[in-house]
Design brief:
Blueprint (H helix, E strand, L loop, with lengths): L5 H11 L10 H21 L11 H4 L4 H32 L6 H14 L5 H11 L4 H8 L13 H25 L3 H9 L4 H29 L3 H7 L8 H10 L6 H33 L2
Length: about 300
């Protein structure tokens, strides 16, 4: 077969570079991202440097150092960290049980179905469910009181630890959904090879299993951290936006929609701080997922 001439080669390259309509399939996705992610983000950045008269200013950024704003960020970071660790630990154990642990198939399917629903069960319905369960007149609270155990005032659903319990409720199923495939990606050959060399179950998990799964576990916990840090409706409904609900999202809502204390510029500056933190979370998650993919996808 005769080799292609330069003209034929150029024509072949042009044909490969010809316009294709296949990209239209992802056009709705990019339009959605541009309309509901990129444009709002750019708007927040721009309005963070504008005062109420629409003049350029750095005052909004400087006000982020005020004590009540710093304490709000610290409160939100602590709440997100506690729920990410707690939800990650409990969800990781549950994910292990339904995959490697060998739970019966019907029970596994039921847990996965429940996790798919519960991970999206938040906001007003979740707050009402916990108020009806663990509130001062909740079903569980009254039952405990009938057996001589008084939760209140030592415990409050509307305190830091009360909010943590509510957040962990939707963190656990999210951990299950993400870590389930990671556990299933553990190859049986790795365990058999370790056992053939005399390793016990403890040695296998200590030197093989956990090092491989650690990037996935940490990455999912980072994702849980961001999930809790951006939550608003659940905390607002539980606290009513009061002093106990000192989370950043509630403070942003107060600055933007309040009649008396409205300061949209400060609200946008607060949101800009959240964007920075969420950007760090996404970066860490992406990096950790790349580390785990080297083993689980090889």
């Amino acid at each position: 077969m005769a080799p292609l001439t330069r003209t034929e080669t150029s024509r072949s390259v042009i044909e490969r570079r010809a316009f294709s309509w296949t990209w239209l399939g992802v056009a709705p996705f990019f339009l959605f991202v541009a309309a509901f992610l990129i444009w709002p983000t750019l708007s927040i950045i721009a309005q963070s440097f504008l005062d109420q008269e629409r003049r350029l200013t750095l005052q909004n950024i400087l006000e982020l150092g005020r004590p009540f704003i710093v304490s709000s960020y610290v409160y939100s970071l602590q709440l997100s960290a506690v729920t990410a660790i707690g939800g990650g630990a409990l969800g990781g154990l549950l994910a292990y049980a339904i995959t490697i642990g060998g739970l019966p198939r019907p029970l596994r399917d039921a847990v996965l179905s429940f996790s798919g629903v519960a991970s999206n069960f938040a906001g007003v319905p979740l707050a009402f469910a916990f108020i009806a369960t663990l509130g001062q007149l909740g079903v569980v609270t009254q039952w405990l009181r009938s057996v001589g155990i008084n939760l209140y005032p030592a415990f409050s659903l509307y305190s830091f630890w009360g909010l943590s319990i509510v957040y962990i409720y939707f963190q656990i199923p999210l951990m299950v959904l993400i870590m389930g495939p990671a556990f299933e990606g553990m190859r049986r050959e790795w365990r058999e090879a370790a056992e053939s060399l005399g390793a016990t179950s403890w040695h296998y998990w200590r030197y093989v299993g956990l090092p491989i799964l650690l990037p996935s576990i940490l990455g999912t916990m980072v994702l849980l951290f961001g999930n809790a840090f951006g939550a608003h409706a659940t905390a607002f409904q539980l606290t009513g936006g009061g002093s106990q609900g000192n989370v950043v999202t509630i403070l942003i809502g107060a600055q933007i929609s309040s009649d008396a204390l409205a300061n949209p510029g400060l609200g946008n500056a607060l949101a800009l701080g959240m964007i920075v933190i969420m950007g760090v979370c996404i970066g860490l998650y992406t990096w950790l997922q790349r580390l785990s993919a080297r083993w689980l996808r090889s």
